[in-house]
Specification:
There is one protein chain. The protein has 299 residues and is α/β, with parallel strands linked by helices. The protein has one domain: Zn peptidases (Aminopeptidase), CATH 3.40.630. The protein is built from 8 helices and 8 strands; from the N terminus they run H-E-E-E-H-E-H-H-E-E-H-E-H-H-E-H. Strands 1-2-4-3-5-8-6-7 form an 8-stranded mixed β-sheet, sandwiched between helices. Strand 3, helix 2 and strand 4 form a beta-alpha-beta unit. Helix 2 crosses helix 8 and helix 5 packs across helix 8. The chain is globular, with a radius of gyration of 18 Å. The structure holds N~2~-sulfamoyl-L-arginine and zinc ion. The site of zinc ion has 3 residues, from loops.
Amino acid sequence: RTPFGYYPRYQEIETYLHELSEKYRNIVTVFSIGNSFEGRPIYVVKIASGGSNKPAVFIDAGIHAREWIAPSTALHAIHELATNKNNSYLYENVDWYIVPCLNPDGYEYTHTDYRFWRKTRSNSGSRCPGTDANRNFDYKWMTIGASSSPCEDTYAGPKPFSEPETQALRDFLLANKQAIKVYLTLHSYGNWLLHPWGWTDKLPENEPILRKVGLDAAEALSSKYGTRYTVGSSTVLLYAAAGGSDDWAMAVAGIELSYTIELPGGRFDPLPNNIAKVGHETFEAFVVFQTYVENKYIN
Ligand code: 0X9
Ligand code: ZN
């Protein structure tokens, strides 16, 4: 089961989250971590069984507006955790924080005006609105693979953290960095499981564990329907692009493991009848990250 068999509008997502938190009030909490440029609340869904000082897995989606499968996959995970009793062991010892749509303005714009919009919808006076939120984080900002032209799709913004959306994510991660052990950010497309660094082809010192856990996750994912992912560093496998949330989460927030998951698609999304399939298989990868956290930090 998946909450929507189609790509929902932001209001539908909001209504769904609020209903879920009422129906499953002992495990699901929904709260806003800030507002988008146009004033939409950005939600975090916490799935937890109570108690304090538990380690956590964090997942966000929808940093890029047009990558619709990402919010849908996050919503599937929320639904799967909250409503399937067989999954209660997954939040017994580990908390989950899931942001299903970090860039609601851009997401709505892809529904109403232009399907292939990527950026936020901020306007700093330029004739071209929007900043690439995944070039806006303050780590190696604007050093490579990002544009200083507001009209480009990879515009890094006038300064690091110029966007209310990236500020909201930054503040939430910094406030919870003690608990959060794995940072996952959902994008599309290409079946890539990418770890830092995204700004240099040098590998981080914890590359062996990033690689091992990533390969375990990819294997679990493929066991469902045979979908294959390639695991490795962003720069080595794709290209160098600085200012991404993944690099910042590991380098600055100090989160142990950080991955960008490029879900399946092709300009940019699977057909709606495949949303559930992608949700299911990707959930298997999330379970691997949860298991890693539980095994390492509990007892
Ligand atoms: O370029 C991006 O932001 C990501 N690919 S996408 O097609 N979804 O736009 C990849 C980001 C990888 N991480 C970093 N370069 N830091
Ligand atoms: Zn993306």
